[in-house]
Design a protein that fits this description.
70% of the residues lie in helices and 0% in strands. With 161 residues, the chain is an all-alpha fold.
Length: 161
């Protein structure tokens, strides 16, 4: 079971990195949240029945963990350690102009509520409204309405006039 879990996590680790980058802006916080998400995924893995895609289930656990993590962190939350398994993803080439635009987008997203951040993350991952609603447990219509409002908010934040 451990090998199967590690294989699936390694294959889909970009999901965790993306969730961490949306909810954290400094390296240490991202590392802490990454570790906490891994712990929660491991704890929840025995309950994964395969009724949805593994990536859908992984998004749901990761986003719920990120939201809960920050609620508890304000109350002195302590993270758990997990075995020292290394999951790596290559950094690739850096395009500075692109990085600046991404940073502006991240700063703008940081002003959104937790649920709005989750919707934006999944939208940027090109998830369909149906899958977003399944991951977040809200209706497709609610996702559409929220996404429309989020786009308006982000436009105003990024292009104030």
């Amino acid at each position: 079971m451990k090998q199967e879990f590690l294989s699936k996590i390694t294959e889909n680790q970009k999901i965790i990195h993306k969730v961490c980058s949306v909810y954290c802006f400094d390296t240490e916080s991202r590392k802490d949240l990454f570790q906490e998400i891994l712990v929660q995924l491991w704890k929840a893995y025995p309950s994964f029945k395969g009724n949805s895609k593994f990536s859908t289930w992984m998004y749901r656990v990761s986003l719920n963990t990120a939201i809960t993590y920050f609620k508890k962190e304000k109350k002195g939350f302590f993270t758990q350690s997990i075995e020292n398994e290394t999951l790596q993803i290559s950094a690739g080439c850096v395009d500075e102009e692109f990085e600046l635009r991404v940073e502006l987008l991240h700063q703008s997203i940081a002003t959104l509520s937790s649920i709005e951040k989750s919707i934006v993350l999944l939208y940027l991952e090109e998830k369909k409204y149906e899958e977003i609603s399944e991951i977040l447990g809200i209706t497709q219509n609610n996702v559409r309405v929220k996404m429309s409002r989020i786009k308006d908010k982000l436009r105003k934040i990024m292009n104030p006039r």
